[in-house]
Design a protein that fits this description.
Number of helices of chain A: 14
Strand content of chain B: under 5%
Distance between the termini of chain A: 37 Å
Number of domains of chain B: 1
Order of helices and strands of chain A: HHHHHEEEHHHHEHHHHH
Number of helices of chain B: 11
Radius of gyration of chain B: 19 Å
Largest sheet of chain A: 2 strands, antiparallel
Largest interface: A-B, 68 and 66 residues
Oligomer: heterodimer
Structural class of chain A: mainly alpha
Helix content of chain A: 55-70%
Number of strands of chain B: 4
Number of strands of chain A: 4
Shape of chain A: globular
Shape of chain B: globular
CATH class of chain B: Mainly Alpha
Mean pLDDT of chain B: 89
Strand content of chain A: under 5%
Helix content of chain B: over 70%
Mean pLDDT of chain A: 83
Strand order of the largest sheet of chain A: 1-4
Low-confidence stretches of chain B: none
Structural class of chain B: mainly alpha
Chain lengths: 340, 301
């Protein structure tokens, strides 16, 4: 992959395969690819928070829910076209994340984890309880509008497929730019060592808050896509177990790795479809596979290069690398080495 | 006032069950800095193993008696402790020195595995606990109604928690557990076998969880294979509230959570009670980031 033209040929082949996919595969698999794509966007958005900054967010479905419900409410009650709702939902979810995470952003590791789980539960219970008659209670809301732009509207699975994967291409491009920017490097620095990062002049609170805001915004946009595709949204789609799956996508793929997220989302979304015949047993196997995977490939399916370097260095920091003092909570990932 | 006191007793009953589960989370966390996500499932497994034992002893002619109940309690605690040890051996030990998040995902995997295993063994429907074994009777003390079941639960939980407290505070093994929680390497230098301590914690925690599972079964009369998630989450919240890693903290946190939940459901809104619990948790963590009894220790200085 060192020669530039090899890389461009690979990209061209990939693009050709992606474009040709709906006509080669049937409607069913195109649909699977759409939901796979939505999970890719969600995984990428959570990767900003968990992978890049090392913030343990296990309540990401809350932001997804805010995006989806914003879309459904504005579309059905005010008739705003779905295309406009992509930025609106993204902004709403981002604002929501900014406001709710502001007071808790300083919490460390596992404390942040339980609080984000709590946020997820609060949002879900609020949706069930139908505040102000807005969310439709446990039954949820129906989205009747279609994505329409320049006289064309999305009807078939293939239409949604192209919208989803077109968006993913844009997002991946933007995220790669972000990873290599000042912000991306500041995020990684915060993840590795907060104290050192702030000593070097990085505003740690700002960096964390930005990650939450951007990640939630992206999840909010995914919410619009999801609402437009599935047409009926209910609180059941935004449970804690949904957040757990997203969290697992990020870790299984390899923290901070964009291709890793895509591969892991594929493994989690597409493989269960292949094993539909073993419906009863597939989650059992899935749980066991997660354990096996972590034991034999802890760095993830497609680890990012920065992380590989770090994992290689860690054992040199000293034996054990185990827990430190009492009640230390946790620090950023890989703190075991850094603390010594 | 009577209603308030009765609600308080309901809350303490539920809270003592939460506290028993929370102890499992907090002990594992104290020793390994790992959120044992499978712990909720071990609690659920305890409820189901107890259910099977009660049903089979009912079928073999035993109809009542606290003695049978006590035997079933101990039996289920033993079975679940063995399961806990197995989970530790397979899912956690190989990852002891790896990245924190890999252990978290492995724990989630173990949780999903156990939950679905229970579903395949006992079915998807709710199972009703045999009512023959539920102690009946109501007492009236100073105008307040208390059921016999509540007294049994409170007494059992109190005995188990006191036993644990004295075990950890007053025995040599307890001292070894506390030393390991503070510093693995130094504890090892002092001749403590860290592996033994971890195994011990994975016996005590799941055993307490199993006891809590049977109590929930007897108290609410029905169990479901997904209940590990919800009770586990509550108990973990309780452990965090008390200050995770801190054993008295888990007890206090559990009782407090149970009381707050019941009072919140009774006086504010039952539909919002779970949200209420988490709002209190968030408020508490904003004011005291390390929980009620958690120590404040600077990180990475």
């Amino acid at each position: 992959m060192n020669k530039p033209y090899v890389r461009w040929i690979a990209y061209a082949v990939l693009a050709a395969v992606l474009i040709a996919f709906p006509s080669a595969a049937g409607r069913y698999w195109t649909d699977v690819a759409v939901f796979f794509g939505i999970y890719v966007i969600l995984g990428l958005s959570l990767n900003l928070i968990v992978g890049e900054v090392g913030l343990f967010n296990m309540g990401h479905a809350a932001f997804f829910a805010v995006g989806a419900y914003t879309t459904a409410i504005l579309s059905t009650q005010y008739g705003i076209p779905l295309v406009w709702l992509f930025p609106v939902s993204a902004a709403t979810a981002a604002l929501f994340a900014y406001v709710v995470t502001r007071p808790i952003i300083h919490l460390r590791g596992d404390y942040l984890l339980i609080v984000t789980i709590g946020l997820n539960e609060i949002v879900r219970i609020a949706l069930i309880n139908n505040p102000g008659g807005l969310t439709g209670g446990p039954n949820g809301l129906l989205v009747l509008d279609r994505i329409t732009a320049f006289g064309w509207s999305a009807r078939t699975p293939a239409d949604f497929y192209y919208i989803t994967w077109g968006l993913i291409a844009l997002i991946v491009f933007a995220l790669i730019r972000l990873q290599n920017s000042r912000i991306g490097r500041a995020w990684n620095y915060v993840r590795e060592d907060e104290v050192a990062a702030s000593a070097m002049g990085i505003d740690v609170r700002w960096a964390k808050s930005l990650a939450f805001t951007l990640g939630a915004g992206l999840a909010g946009a995914a919410g619009t896509l999801y609402a437009a595709k599935i047409r009926i949204i209910s609180p059941d789609s935004f449970t804690f177990s949904e957040s757990v799956i997203l969290f697992c996508i990020v870790v299984l793929g390899g923290l901070g790795s964009i291709p890793g997220v895509i591969v892991a989302a594929g493994a989690l979304m597409v493989l269960p479809e292949l094993f539909r015949d073993f419906l009863e047993y597939r989650m059992l196997v899935f749980g066991a596979a997660m354990i096996v995977m972590m034991i034999f490939r802890p760095q993830g399916l497609w680890p990012s290069r920065r992380w590989v370097r770090e994992l290689m260095e860690e054992p040199a920091a000293g034996p054990g690398g185990g827990p430190q003092g009492p009640g230390t909570g946790v620090s950023a990932p890989a703190a075991g080495g850094a603390e010594k | 006032m009577e209603i308030f006191t009765e609600q308080l007793i309901n809350g303490l009953t539920l809270g003592s069950i939460y506290a028993l589960i929370a102890l499992g989370y907090t002990m594992v966390y104290g020793i390994m800095r790992l959120i044992n996500f499978a712990h909720g499932e071990l609690f659920m497994l305890g409820a189901y193993v107890g259910f099977t034992m009660l049903v089979s002893s009912f079928a073999s002619g035993q109809t009542s008696g606290l003695l049978v109940l006590a035997a079933v309690l101990l039996g289920a605690m033993a079975v679940v402790a063995a399961t806990g040890l197995t989970v530790e051996r397979i899912a956690y030990r190989p990852l002891r020195h790896s990245h924190r998040l890999t252990a978290v995902v492995s724990a989630l995997g173990a949780s999903i595995f156990l939950q679905n295993a229970a579903m395949l063994i006992w079915g998807k429907r709710y199972q009703a606990y045999p009512s023959a074994f539920v102690p009946t009777g109501r007492f009236e003390m100073l105008g307040v109604h208390v059921t016999a079941m509540q007294l049994v639960i409170l007494a059992t939980a109190l005995v188990l928690m006191l036993a644990l407290y004295f075990f950890v505070q007053r025995t040599m093994i307890g001292m070894a557990i506390r030393a390991t929680a503070i510093d693995h390497d130094t504890a090892r230098l002092m001749g403590i076998d860290i592996n033994q301590i971890i195994r011990l914690v994975f016996v005590i925690g799941p055993a307490l969880g199993a006891a809590a599972g049977i109590m929930i079964g007897l108290y609410y009369r029905q169990i479901h294979y997904t209940m590990g998630w919800s009770y586990g989450l509550k108990a973990f919240t309780a452990a965090i509230m008390g200050g995770i890693g801190n054993i008295p903290g888990a007890m206090v946190g559990g009782l407090l959570l149970g009381v707050l939940e019941i009072l919140g459901a009774g006086y504010l809104s039952s539909a919002w009670k779970d949200a209420f619990v988490f709002i209190i948790l968030i408020g508490l963590l904003i004011l005291r980031p390390h929980g009620l009894l958690g120590e404040r220790v600077a990180e990475k200085v």
